[in-house]
Design goal:
102 residues, three-stranded parallel β-sheet, Ribosomal Protein L15, Chain: K, domain 2, 6 strands
Length: 102
């Protein structure tokens, strides 16, 4: 039997891939305009992320005031923008499941 018929078809599907729910700073600060503290539960309740997915804060937008944001991960630029405004990015350690949804 030829080699191309003996090899499996399709690509590799990583079972340990973690899919994050992206939340941009501009969207976050329009939903919570006066909040000094933004927690993960508030982000889920506001509908910015699907419940159960870990949240990653991305840097689109700007931060004009001091705010403490809690999420599973932050991009480097988002964390820097939050720190420059006098805020604190808090990366929460917790159980992050591997999702294989694609």
């Amino acid at each position: 039997m030829p080699l191309q018929r003996r090899l499996p078809k399709g690509g590799f599907k990583n079972p340990f891939r973690v899919a994050y729910a992206p939340v941009n700073l501009d969207r976050l600060l329009t939903v919570f305009p006066e909040a000094d503290n933004v927690t993960i539960d508030q982000l889920y309740a506001a509908g910015l992320a699907k419940k159960g997915l870990p949240i990653k804060i991305l840097a689109r937008g700007s931060v004009s005031r001091s705010v403490t944001i809690e999420a599973h991960r932050f991009s480097k630029q988002a964390a820097e923008l939050i720190r420059q405004a006098g805020g604190t990015p808090v990366a929460v350690e917790g159980e992050i499941r591997a999702t294989n949804d694609k």
